[in-house]
Each structure stands twice: as C-alpha cells, then as structure tokens.
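To the team - flavin mononucleotide complex, inputs and output below.
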Amino acid sequence: MKTMIIAAHPDLRQSRANRMLALALEPYTDIHVRDLYSEYPDWQIDVEKEQQALLQYDRIVFQFPFYWYSCTPLLKKWFDDVLTYGWAFGPGGDHLSGKEFMVATTTGGTEGGYRSGGDNWFTLSELLRPIQSTITRCNGTYLPAFVMYDADRGTDDYIAREAGRYAEHVRASHERLTSSVI
Ligand SMILES: Cc1cc2nc3c(=O)[nH]c(=O)nc-3n(C[C@H](O)[C@H](O)[C@H](O)COP(=O)(O)O)c2cc1C
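Output:
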C-alpha cells in the first residue's frame, strides 16, 4: 500500500501538532509526506504534477489544522484546481476510482465540544461532509478521519501519544478502519 500525505499547514515547521504528526510517519518508507504550503509558496498549483502524483498512490491523506470548521485555504484551492471535470469526475473522470482517501486534522476545540449541545454544535464527521462529498463525487473511497482534539492545550506527552495513534490509523487496513471496534 503506497500512501501520500498532503500536509497543508501554513507553517508546518513552526507547528506543534501537525509537525509531530508528520514526524511520526518518517520511519515508514511506503508513506510519502508532502508539505503543500512550502511546495507552492505562490499558490500556483501544478495540476498535471498533482494528478500524476495521485495516480502513483493507493491511499491519500489530507492532513491539516482545522481552521474555521474547514480545511486550510491552500488545500481548498488544491481541490478546486486538481479535481477537474473529465479527470476526477464527470465523463471520463474515473482516475480516482478505487483509491482511498482520509482526512487527518487537529483541532483547538475539545472532543466534548464537538457534539450536538456542545460549544461547537456538530461532530467532526458532520463538519467534514463537504470533503467526504467531494471524494465520493470523485469515485474515491472515503475512510474514517483521524482527529487530534485539544491540540493547543495538549501536553507534549499527549501530542506524542496522538502522533503514535496517527501512524497506526494511517497504516490500518480499510477493514480495520471501518469496523466498529477501532
Ligand atoms: C485561523 C484559525 C482558525 C481556527 N479555527 C478553528 C476551528 O474552527 N475549530 C477548532 O477547533 N480550532 C480552530 N483553530 C485552532 C487550530 O485548529 C489549532 O491551533 C491547530 O489545530 C493546532 O495545530 P498546529 O500545532 O499544528 O498548528 C483555528 C486556528 C486558526 C489560526
């Protein structure tokens, strides 16, 4: 299983949570981690290069800090630019069929706040539905997301444990991720 991580943090090197998540994947030779903001400082995404890259991998992970209940803006632009009509969806747009996609995000909010009645009202699964719908429209398989809650207040130990859990989640089989026991 070849996996590509598209990390989309505006400043990954200065980040705490997302940097630790990316570091946790370094030992795995079949996982390729990319830093989207440093690859495209001018935001001019090379669509052909990105589409070719997608073809090389079985699983693609979008890793980002949760910003205003959504992904970071360069990743949104990446979706807009790369998932084109006739390539990713629509007639002839079957290049992503059979590929697995996953979101990995870090939040400032606590898990308890992300529920109906909580201070963020909705669950992460609910808030990630636009990305789930995008992937589904493009014939990809959308896997359960990895979420690290409370990323700003969490201790270094907590972040390290969550990074370990991330490495397991990214490498887990489709069957394990979608079974109710994980
Ligand atoms: C512009 C901006 C918007 C944010 N929006 C949210 C949000 O909607 N929900 C939330 O839980 N945290 C939000 N946060 C907190 C970040 O998600 C949190 O700082 C980040 O996940 C920590 O990861 P890092 O250490 O890799 O930067 C926001 C932070 C910024 C800077």
